[in-house]
Specification:
By secondary structure, the chain is α/β, with parallel strands linked by helices. Among the domains are: 110 residues, Carboxypeptidase-like, regulatory domain (Immunoglobulin-like, Sandwich); 84 residues, Carboxypeptidase-like, regulatory domain (Immunoglobulin-like, Sandwich); 113 residues, von Willebrand factor, type A domain (Rossmann fold). It is built from seven helices and 22 strands. The strands form six sheets. It has a five-stranded mixed β-sheet with strand order 3-2-5-6-9, with no helix packed on it. A hairpin with a 5-residue loop joins strand 13 and strand 14.
Length: 457
């Protein structure tokens, strides 16, 4: 019996892995052949944005672990004509490459170059025989539709359909390319607002339902070598202007004697002269990031949690490992969470604001529905720039979800310019002037913007 179970598990894992593939390539200047760095590359499927990424310093991009099928690839970069390649065939079980050349342009930024992808006659990396037959090569054949129309059929409907054995809440429905959650469309037609687990959400603007934006995650802490390279090159002027040295990283992990992470433990990085170099609280994983200046190696990490204290002498930098400590304390379960949104409300964010109203409302409602036992508090701050109608306006952290949602619905985009905006003022108010819960297991700030801050340390 054990052997049978193991073989079945391996078979299932293999079939899942085989259904995934990847698409990669390089974006270059059509005139010079030089790579285009930080070029936005969007991947569309059936007219809906499926994924997005940026090119690296060599102009390379990649979409790992995507499903096979036909896609559209669109590239955008300032100074170049937007380019879209349609009907890109992504094959299963192989690495699919698509190199893109972009044509530079003068002052006209509205042109979109649309080309049709053609299946190559010779695939350079294909060592097996086979061929791709697209829909344009398939002749329409005869069908029994006419005969079937004359047959008598029963008719019925169901409110809880099952698609390949899945329940209703495991299936997404698309109407004219718009994802609808929560069930099928009523007989009267498509609903004006998609349903959410916590009930219907009011539309932020006509024709802007939730569920249209996609998001990814990039952590500099998890990609430390790349971050260190940026600090030595692109970000060097900023570290000098702000007199910060985010290179000397010291990570501490605090657990109790049962191996459970200790959240909200205060950690202080101390110098040899007894000066506090950095202070932080551990997160819900028991981790805290501490930063030293360039003066030298710190002397210790001092830990303080309620009546318990600990000390780590001669801490090692993150490059050599994580500094670990143990406290003989119990860890009461923390169920509180503070979530705060900081949003750029200048004129260039007009379209984004309309989408964000729907997306933020939908996200907040789903968090409340999916985490019913969490003491969730939400708040928001919208900012513009100096000399605009306002610099910042905010709604404080509160357990009254309707209060935050009403505030978000009232906001619009206006003002600003083509340069930096008051990001630093907004973050200072978000970090220092909000009523954060010191006992919360999670305290998050989501910063949403399209322009850098003023360089005013």
């Amino acid at each position: 019996m054990k052997t049978t179970i193991l073989l079945l598990t391996a078979s299932l894992c293999g079939s899942v892995a085989f259904s995934q593939t990847s698409l990669y390539g390089k974006v270059t200047d059509a005139d010079t052949g030089e790579p285009i760095i930080f070029c936005s590359v969007a991947l569309y499927k059936n007219g809906v944005l499926a994924n997005g990424t940026e090119t690296d310093f060599d102009g390379n991009y990649t979409f790992p672990e995507i499903g096979p099928g036909a896609y559209e690839v669109e590239t955008t970069y300032v100074g170049f004509a937007k380019k879209r390649i349609s009907d890109v065939q992504v094959m299963e079980g192989k690495a699919n490459r698509l190199d893109i050349e972009m044509a530079s342009e003068g002052v006209i930024l509205d042109e979109v170059v649309v080309t049709e992808y053609r299946v190559p006659l010779v695939e350079m990396d294909n060592t097996t025989s086979g061929a791709v037959i697209t829909s344009s090569r398939v002749r329409p054949g005869s069908s029994g539709g006419g005969r079937a129309a004359h047959r008598k059929k029963g008719k019925g409907k169901t409110e809880t359909p099952s698609v390949r054995g899945s329940r209703r809440d495991a299936t997404d429905y698309y109407i004219d390319g718009i994802r609808v959650r929560g069930g099928l469309v009523p007989e009267g037609g498509a609903p004006s607002t998609p349903a959410t687990p916590a009930g219907p959400a009011e539309a932020a603007a006509p024709g802007v339902p939730a569920g249209q934006l996609t998001a990814g995650e990039w952590s500099d802490l998890d990609n430390w070598e790349t971050w260190a390279e940026l600090l030595e090159e692109d970000f060097l002027p900023y570290t000098q202007a702000w007199e910060l040295a985010p290179r000397n990283r010291f990570t501490v992990e605090v657990k109790n004697n049962k191996g459970v992470p200790v959240a909200n433990c205060r950690a202080r990085l101390m110098s040899r002269e007894g000066k506090v170099l950095w202070t932080a609280l551990t997160d819900n994983n028991g981790l805290a990031e501490l930063w030293a200046d360039d003066a030298g190696s710190p002397e210790s990490i001092e830990l303080d949690y309620r009546e318990y204290e600990a000390r780590i002498g001669q801490p090692q930098p993150r490059a050599k490992g994580i500094n670990q400590a143990e406290l003989k304390t119990g860890c009461p379960e923390a169920t509180a969470a503070d979530v705060f949104f900081v949003v750029d409300a200048t004129g260039s964010m007009t379209d984004e604001i309309n989408y964000l109203k729907a997306e933020l409302e939908d996200a907040i409602l789903r968090v409340e529905s999916n985490l019913p036992d969490t003491e969730l508090r939400t708040g928001a701050l919208f900012y513009r720039d100096h000399n605009d109608a306002y610099l910042t306006r905010s709604s404080p952290l509160t357990a009254k979800l309707d209060s935050t949602l009403a505030f978000i619905r009232q906001q619009g985009a206006q003002g600003g310019g083509d340069g930096p905006e008051a990001v630093e003022v907004a973050l200072a108010k978000a970090l220092q002037e909000q009523n954060w819960n010191p006992a919360a297991a999670t305290r998050l700030i989501f910063l949403i913007l399209d322009a850098p801050p003023h360089q005013t340390p």
